[in-house]
Design a protein that fits this description.
mainly alpha; 2 domains; Growth Hormone, Chain: A; globular; 0% strand
């Protein structure tokens, strides 16, 4: 059996095929390597879409299923928090795991765990099984770490904003189309969890079909490990500023429904409508706005600019009495969040190149920490009657201001293509 090198990558074969040294052959070989690279990237993007669709299709039914079996909202929330905490710990070891077994095996494992969670949902008869499915399926949060690492190994640094922005757009689209499919399936065949399982199975099949690891590239990958990029100590200012600038995103994702119910008293259909608008705005931001802004500014300046776009609407949004005005300002903030999150993703890879898995793992850890800390803090703030979004925006402003003072005003590796 082929042994995995310490820093093996599942995409090494395709990456070598796309390198200048390999492309020194005939035009036919160049075309073949280019096709192989594009095919691998498309496959990874499809894998991400189907995994996120697998949870977004039955997602709205989980709370209903929990209630039908006598579960409480607090117990469901505790299960979700447990899933986040467990996967936050796992996320700290994702880079060593990827470097040890390779990106492809790690991606397959994440897809299998995500699908297992949906399968447990479909078979559940007790709340214990339901909560176990939430914890097992929560492994899907590592999907972006694996997928972005694979794509980062295939691309030049100047290509990362375009590729990472496309991934963000795809995940946003998955969270929009999932509920739509859920409504259609509920009204017709009623097989919501079956559709989720099928979507996860498609993702698993795609992950399994990706190119394997090339043992011939082991020496090259091992050399990467000898120069892992910026140390964690030197990266602490970047990590803290990035966490502060992206905290409002976690606030909106995890606390929007709670805020809308308490502030405006709107029904679940209204919450769904606002959520869809938010997801579409995020997809547009990642798919178009972020790419263009990063080309002009680079990662670090875009982090500041995105933070300003995030914070400014949130500073005044608590004063609005109209749900329409609230939604319009929320769209502006979400557009900034797409740029902010994209800047963090690319910046972390820039800081850790050539060991890119560390960068994608750092970016995922920042998101996971926010996802763990924000729900409890938001609940306390809302229950106390304090302005949730204003406090979150103030944190973002403080982070951006500190970052502007202490961080270099340019990306380390951001260069426009020749």
């Amino acid at each position: 059996m082929e042994k995995a090198a310490p820093a093996a990558r599942a995409s090494s074969l395709a990456a070598r095929a796309s390198s200048p040294a390999t492309n020194a052959g005939s035009p036919a070989e160049k075309d073949a390597s280019l096709v192989a690279r594009k095919s691998t990237i498309l496959a990874v993007q499809a894998c991400i879409f189907f995994v996120y669709s697998s949870i977004s299709i039955p997602g709205s039914s989980i709370s209903v299923l929990n209630k039908s079996m006598g579960g409480t909202a607090s117990s469901l929330g505790s299960a979700r928090t447990a899933a986040l905490l467990w996967n936050l710990v796992v996320g700290l070891f994702m880079s060593p795991i990827i470097n040890s077994v390779g990106t492809k095996p790690a991606l397959i494992a994440v897809c299998a765990l995500a699908g297992s969670g949906i399968l447990i949902f479909s078979l559940t008869t007790t709340t214990t099984m339901l909560y176990a499915g939430i914890i097992v399926g929560g492994a899907r949060i590592h999907l972006l770490t694996c997928g972005k690492t694979m794509i980062a190994d295939l691309c030049e640094p100047e290509e990362l904003p375009n590729q990472f922005g496309t991934i963000g757009m795809i995940s946003g689209i998955a969270f929009v189309t999932g509920p739509i499919f859920s409504i259609i399936l509920t009204k017709t065949i009623g097989c919501v969890y079956g559709a989720g399982c099928l979507s996860a199975l498609l993702a698993l099949g795609i992950a399994t079909s990706l190119p394997g690891t090339s043992s011939h590239s082991a020496g090259k990958d091992a050399a990467k490990e000898s120069s892992p990029g910026m140390s964690i100590r030197d990266a602490v200012p970047y990590l803290l500023v990035s966490a502060a600038c992206t905290a409002p995103f976690a606030t909106i994702i995890l606390s929007l429904d709670m805020y809308l119910v308490q502030r405006f008293g709107i029904a679940s259909s209204g919450i769904a409508a606002v959520t869809v608008v938010m997801a579409v705005s995020y997809a547009i931001s990642q798919g178009a706005l972020f790419k263009r802004m990063h080309q002009r500014l680079g990662s670090v300046p875009l982090l500041f600019v995105g933070g300003a776009f995030v914070a400014t609407p949130l500073l005044v949004i608590d004063y609005l009495e109209s749900i329409l005005g609230f939604t319009m300002l929320l769209v502006v903030s979400v557009l900034g969040m797409g740029c902010c999150q994209g800047a963090v993703d690319v910046l972390m890879v820039e800081l850790t190149t050539p060991n890119k898995s560390r960068g994608t793992a750092w970016a995922a850890t920042i998101s996971n920490v926010n996802m763990v800390l924000v729900p409890g803090a938001s609940g306390i703030i809302v229950d106390a009657g304090l302005p949730l979004f204003r406090i979150s925006a103030s944190l973002c402003v403080a982070g951006a201001a500190i970052g502007y003072l202490v961080l270099p005003r340019r990306s380390q590796q951001h260069k426009k293509p020749e």
